[in-house]
């Protein structure tokens, strides 16, 4: 490390950055066309119902609020003959057990990629992005509390959420004998499958993913990483805490109030100018956020330290403030909705890949409603259920963006 820490740091100052390369538009096809890419796990002999039709019903039913495999079948049986035909069924429809046996055999990672790709291509912006646009993807895990395996362990899934569109771009099942750390690279692979490239993308993750290998994985793919540093990295945490923060001016400050609380968030950022500045690979800046809350006259203060692999010219303090707050989207706008609106933690499906498959369907439903402008997902599902024919028309039509 440099003998004088002050000389190893540079206060972040504004610089102009260019816009990233435009995302290549994919085919804006209907749901049935997209689901045709999912391989059928059944024996070809004796197949009565097309796989794409079964999956389309599952997607539509969950968009309309179905929270279990049984509810998916009930939604199908309540459709009129014309609506069933539009989804790919003939005169007969499968029983609940038939739907269940098929859905729990699917590859959940592949299904998530197909559905995420379908949503993603239908929400590509029609023109060039704003000058300071950057795709920000939040990564976090969630335990399905009702899905206990035979040995008592619970199913744990890790997701990657596009914080701008509300679409879950990828989801992988965490090995019950491991943790999220080993699933990080497969999740990046899945996101890259959907986007085509990760160049310029910023990933935000919690302190569990402040890992050297993760930083290397992201950098190899020409992406960037913003992570919080806590006690799981004691050396790095001490280095960040000992930086001369008192001598660094405030880069950005926001004030919020509501629900009887006042909160001030102050961001300071410095550029590490020498390789020995901090011992975390590819880190370009060190960040400190101070949160001061006043509730019922009582004041509390919390300090968080982070590192980011973007240089100061591409990540100003006000950008960092916005991006760090976006990480909460995956908890507030995804996991919370799955629990409250779709009652995920009460669902006890645990056979085969069932837990991951139905979680993927919930992600797709939430992403669909977000991209159509819904702010209240519960209300949007009720509306979709009342207007099932309009829903079927919307998901099966081929046009650039959902209206």
UniProtKB/TrEMBL annotation:
Annotated ranges, domain H repeat-associated protein N-terminal: 33-119
InterPro entries in the cross-refs: ISAs1_transpos (IPR047647), Transposase_11 (IPR002559), Transposase_11-like (IPR051698), YbfD_N (IPR032806)
Keywords: Membrane, Transmembrane, Transmembrane helix
UniProt domain Transposase IS4-like: residue ranges: 134-354
Pfam families: DDE_Tnp_1, DDE_Tnp_1_assoc
Source domain of life: Bacteria
One biological process term in Gene Ontology: DNA transposition
UniProt key word Membrane: yes
Gene Ontology MF terms in the entry: DNA binding; transposase activity
UniProt keyword Transmembrane helix present: yes
TM region(s), chain numbering: 51-76
Protein name: ISAs1 family transposase
Source organism (scientific name): Actinoplanes lobatus
